[in-house]
Specification:
One of its GO terms (biological process) is regulation of DNA-templated transcription. A 6-stranded parallel sheet has the order 2-1-3-4-5-6, with helices on both faces. It has 2 domains: about 130 residues, Response regulator (Rossmann fold, 3-Layer(aba) Sandwich), CATH 3.40.50.2300; about 60 residues, Winged helix-like DNA-binding domain superfamily/Winged helix DNA-binding domain (Arc Repressor Mutant, subunit A). The chain is an alpha/beta fold. The protein contains 9 helices and 6 strands, in the order βαβαβαβαβαβαααα. The protein is elongated, with a radius of gyration of 18 Å.
Length: about 220
């Protein structure tokens, strides 16, 4: 019988219940080894230096003060090119998936999926050459990662700002998060609003919800 080599896995999620739930699910697999479970990007970056991992499970959206999104994925891809990255998000629209793919992640799993999907994704990724994989059980609209129906006219930075707005963050909080001036973030937000033809945060939320509903029809 062939012995399956252990798969070393690191987890990043700022919610302790989610993080603990993933740890418990992975513990059911005898060849999974959790090398670290982290609540912030800085903890993850520091931890990987002393406890390397083959696969990183990374929450795409962290706390307002923490590095996340495309900035974090790009940094991980550069600093730890040997790692394969699974990005998770409750934002599972085609726009977010395209950003995640282009930032260097190898696989995307929606947080709406059960944990056994994540376990299957880890096995799948561990056996691939590293090409980007979409969860086949969910992403019928995103086989082509260039499909971005909600915000196809937005730049990557504008998309990141809109993501933060949808999470309820203020312009000041977003500016602190991305180390940009309030003026720069405000300009990116207004530019995105203009392209999407919305005039308030509430209209943006309504547009985003409508877009998700349309994807399901």
């Amino acid at each position: 019988m062939n012995r399956i080599n252990p798969i070393n896995i690191a987890i990043l999620d700022d919610h302790v219940i989610v993080r603990h739930g993933i740890e418990l699910a992975l513990a059911t697999q005898k060849n999974f080894v959790v090398t670290g479970a982290y609540s912030s990007s800085q903890e993850l970056l520091k931890g990987l230096l002393s406890k390397p991992a083959q696969i990183l499970i990374v929450d795409y959206s962290l706390q307002a003060h923490d590095m996340d999104g495309i900035n974090l994925l790009r940094m991980l891809a550069i600093k730890f090119p040997e790692c394969k990255i699974i990005a998770m998000s409750s934002f599972d629209d085609a726009t977010t998936i395209a950003l995640i793919k282009n930032a260097g992640a190898h696989l995307f799993v929606s947080k709406a999926q059960p944990l056994d999907v994540l376990i299957g994704a880890i096995f799948q990724l561990a056996q691939t050459s590293g090409d980007f994989i979409l969860d086949p059980n969910r992403f019928y609209v995103a086989r082509n990662a260039n499909m971005v129906p909600l915000s196809r006219l937005l730049t990557a930075r504008e998309n990141e700002v809109i993501r933060c707005v949808l999470e309820g963050m203020s312009v000041t909080q977003i500016a602190h998060k991305f180390f940009k001036s309030r003026k720069t973030i405000s300009a990116q937000k207004m530019s995105a609003f203009s392209k999407l033809n919305v005039h308030s945060d509430q209209e943006l939320v309504e547009l985003f919800n409508k877009s998700k509903s349309d994807d399901l029809t």
